[in-house]
Design a protein that fits this description.
3 domains; 4-stranded antiparallel β-sheet; 51% helix; 587 residues; 13 strands; Isoleucyl-tRNA Synthetase, Domain 1; binds arginine; alpha/beta; Rossmann fold
Length: 587
C-alpha cells in the first residue's frame, strides 16, 4: 500500500504496452530503459526487436511513439538515432512521485517488498576462538552485516550464522595448559574488558605453544586432551567452554566498536555440528559420493587437480578418524537446508577459501542436499592491502590487530570532526568521531566490489572530499542544518512548480532508490548502493550550488526545495543504514 511505483518502472510499463500494441509478438519484450544524459530516459530495446521482426528500426520506433500515452508521467517521447526512444518526464510526476515516497509512514520511502521472499542463511563474522581478529574478519563482518540489512529490507527471511572457529586440535594444547595452570584465565574484576580477555588468551596461547614446542611430555598430554575433548569428557569440555566464553567477551567488544549487532544465539561455531559429523560421513559414504582412499574418506572431482596433475580430494574424514573443516561445513549445510529450511546459503568468506567452498558445494549437490531450489553461494571477498599494495602487515611483518586499526580510524576521524566542529561539546566530538571513523572504515570496504582487493588508507578514508562516508555524512548534516534554519517553514511538495535542471536530476535519481536497493540485494552488491549514495550527495551538492533554498523566489519554491532537501536526507539516512553507517544530525 505504501509502496510507490518508480518513474522508471512506470515508463517501462507504458513502453511495454505501446510495444505490444504495435508489434503483438513483442509482448513481454524488454524495452531496455536507462537513465540518459540526452533525455531523462532512453530505451534501446527496439533495435533488437526490429531486427527480429525484419522491420526498419526507425519506422518501428516511430510507430511505437505514436502508441505511447503522454500526459501526467511521460511529457514527451521522440525517436533518436537509429531507433532509440528519448523520454522526458513531466516535472509534476517527479515531484509527485517523491511526495508519495515522502508520505510513506513506514520510513521505507515507498520501496516495495520482494514478491516472493525466501529464507537465506548467511554465514558471516566468523572469528576464531583464542585468536586475535584481523582485517579479514573485518571484511566478513562489514559486508555480511550490510547484506543482512539489504536482504531484510526487501522482506527476505534472514537467519544469521556466525561460524566461529571453536574446535580443533589446537584446543588440546590450550586446555592442557590451563589444566596445569588453572588461574591463567581468572579475572580480577567482575567486569572484564575485551582488551583484557584477549590479552589473557594471548598470553596463555603463547605460553602453551612454547611448552608444546619444547616439552615432549607436555605434547603427549596435550594430544591425549584432544581425544578427551572429542570424546566429550566433561571436565575437558568445561575448560574448553572457558576459552569460548573468554573469546566471546573479546568478540563482542570488537563488534560493539564496529557498531554492529551480533546476537549470541546466532553464534553457532564449528563445534555446534559435532553431533552430525559421523552421520554426514555415513550418508556420503553410503551414497557413494565419498570413497575411502588410504583410510581417509574423500570426494574426488574431475576438474580439481594439484600442481602434480593428481586429483585433489576433499577430505571429509582423516585416516585417523578425525573430522576437519569440510565435514563441519557439510554438516552445517544439512542443518541449514533441512532444519532451518533455507532456500539460499550465503557465505561471506575470503576468496582464498574459494576452492574449499567449490568442493563442499559440489559434494552437497551430489548428495542431493543442494539442488536447483536450494542454492549455495560464496560471496568471496578480496584481500585488504597496505598502502604499499601488499597484504596488510605491521612493519614487523605481523598481522595487524583489528582493534588497533579501528582505534586509529576513530582518532583520525575525531581530529577531523574537532577541526570542523562549531558547536559540539567534547562528549559530542567523541561520539561523532566514533561514528565517522567506523563509518569511514565500513564505507571504504563496501564501496569497492567485494571480490576486489582494496588498500587500507586511513588518510583517504577520512577525507572530506571524494567518495567517502564522511562526505556523505557531511551532506546529511548540512541538510539537517538547513532544515533547522528554516525554522517555522516546513518542507512541502508543490508538484505544480517547474523544476530547474539540477532539481530534476536530483529528483530522478532519488526516485530510483528502490531499484538500486533491489539490485544491491539480489546481487549481494552493497557497492552498488554506495555508488548510488555518492551520486545522491554529488547531485545534491550541484542542486545546492545552483538553487537557493531558503532564498528561493516564492514561498512555494522555498517549501518545495526544503522538501527536496528532506527527501535527499531521508534517502541518505536509509541508504547509509543499509550499509551499517550512522548519519549524525550535526557534524
Ligand atoms: N573461521 C574461519 C576463518 O577465520 C571462517 C569461517 C567461514 N565459514 C565457514 N562456514 N567455513 O577463516
Amino acid at each position: 500500500m505504501a509502496s510507490v511505483t518508480s518513474l522508471s518502472d512506470n515508463v517501462q510499463q507504458h513502453l511495454a504496452s505501446a510495444l505490444s500494441a504495435t508489434l503483438p509478438e513483442a509482448a513481454g519484450a524488454d524495452p531496455l530503459l536507462r537513465r540518459s544524459d540526452r533525455a531523462d530516459f532512453q530505451a534501446n530495446g527496439i533495435l533488437a526487436l526490429a531486427k527480429k521482426a525484419k522491420a526498419n528500426p526507425r519506422e518501428l520506433a516511430t510507430q511505437v511513439v505514436s502508441q505511447v500515452v503522454t500526459g501526467d508521467v511521460i511529457k514527451d517521447v521522440e525517436v533518436s538515432g537509429p531507433g532509440f526512444l528519448n523520454i522526458t518526464i513531466a516535472d509534476k510526476a517527479i515531484t509527485g512521485n517523491l511526495a508519495a515516497r515522502y508520505a510513506d509512514e513506514t520510513g521505507r520511502l515507498g520501496v516495495p517488498y520482494a514478491e516472493q521472499p525466501g529464507t537465506t542463511v548467511i554465514d558471516y563474522a566468523q572469528p576464531n576462538v583464542a585468536k586475535e581478529m584481523h582485517v579479514g574478519h573485518l571484511r566478513s563482518a562489514v559486508i555480511g552485516d550490510s547484506v543482512v540489512q539489504l536482504l531484510e529490507f526487501t522482506g527476505e527471511n534472514v537467519v544469521r550464522r556466525h561460524h566461529i572457529g571453536d574446535w580443533g586440535t589446537q584446543f588440546g594444547m590450550l586446555i592442557q595448559y590451563l589444566d596445569e595452570h588453572p588461574h591463567e584465565l581468572d579475572h580480577k574484576d567482575a567486569r572484564v574488558t575485551g582488551e583484557e580477555a584477549m590479552s589473557n588468551l594471548d598470553r596463555l596461547y603463547k605460553a602453551a605453544r612454547k611448552k608444546f614446542d619444547s616439552d615432549e611430555e607436555f605434547k603427549t598430554r596435550a594430544r591425549r586432551r584432544v581425544v578427551d575433548l572429542q570424546a566429550g569428557d566433561e571436565h575437558t569440555l568445561a575448560m574448553w567452554q572457558r576459552f569460548v566464553d573468554e573469546s566471546k567477551i573479546y568478540f563482542f567488544s570488537v563488534f560493539e566498536k564496529l557498531d554492529m549487532e551480533i546476537r549470541d544465539a546466532d553464534i553457532v561455531g564449528e563445534s555446534g555440528y559435532n553431533d552430525m559429523l559421523a552421520e554426514t560421513c555415513r550418508l556420503l559414504e553410503e551414497s557413494g559420493v565419498a570413497v575411502r582412499s588410504e583410510g581417509a574418506l574423500c570426494v574426488f572431482f574431475d576438474d580439481i587437480k594439484g600442481p602434480d596433475g593428481n586429483p585433489v580430494p576433499l577430505i571429509v574424514q582423516k585416516s585417523d578418524g578425525g573430522y576437519g573443516y569440510a565435514a563441519t561445513d557439510l554438516s552445517a549445510i544439512r542443518d541449514r537446508v533441512f532444519n532451518l529450511k533455507a532456500n539460499t546459503l550465503l557465505y561471506v568468506v575470503d576468496a582464498r577459501q574459494a576452492l574449499h567452498f567449490r568442493m563442499v558445494f559440489e559434494t552437497a549437490r551430489r548428495a542431493g542436499w543442494l539442488n536447483d531450489d536450494v542454492t549455495a553461494v560464496q560471496l568471496a571477498f578480496g584481500t585488504v592491502l597496505g598502502k604499499d599494495g601488499k597484504p596488510f602487515k605491521t612493519r614487523e611483518g605481523e598481522t595487524v590487530r583489528l582493534v588497533d586499526l579501528l582505534d586509529e580510524a576513530i582518532d583520525r576521524a575525531s581530529a577531523v570532526v574537532r577541526e570542523k566542529a562549531q558547536d559540539l561539546s567534547e562528549e559530542e566530538i567523541a561520539e561523532r568521531g566514533a561514528q565517522v571513523g567506523i563509518g569511514a572504515v565500513k564505507y571504504a570496504d563496501l564501496s569497492t566490489s567485494a571480490n576486489r582487493d582494496y588498500k587500507f588508507d586511513l588518510d583517504q578514508m577520512v577525507s572530506l572530499n571524494g567518495d567517502t562516508s564522511v562526505y556523505l555524512q557531511y551532506a546529511y548534516a548540512r541538510i539537517q542544518s538547513i532544515l533547522r534554519k528554516a525554522g517555522e517553514v516546513s518542507p512541502a511538495a508543490h508538484p505544480e512548480l517547474a523544476l530547474a535542471d539540477a532539481e530534476r536530476a536530483l529528483g530522478l535519481h532519488l526516485d530510483s532508490f528502490a531499484e538500486t536497493v533491489r539490485e544491491a540485494a539480489t546481487e549481494y552488491a552493497p557497492h552498488k548502493l554506495a555508488a548510488y549514495l555518492y551520486q545522491v550527495a554529488s547531485l545534491y551538492t550541484s542542486f545546492y550550488d545552483k538553487c537557493p533554498v531558503l532564498r528561493a523566489e516564492t514561498p512555494a519554491q522555498v517549501e518545495n526545495r526544503l522538501f527536496l532537501c528532506d527527501v535527499t536526507a531521508r534517502t541518505l539516512h536509509q541508504g547509509m543504514a543499509l550499509l551499517g553507517i550512522r548519519t549524525p544530525e550535526k557534524l
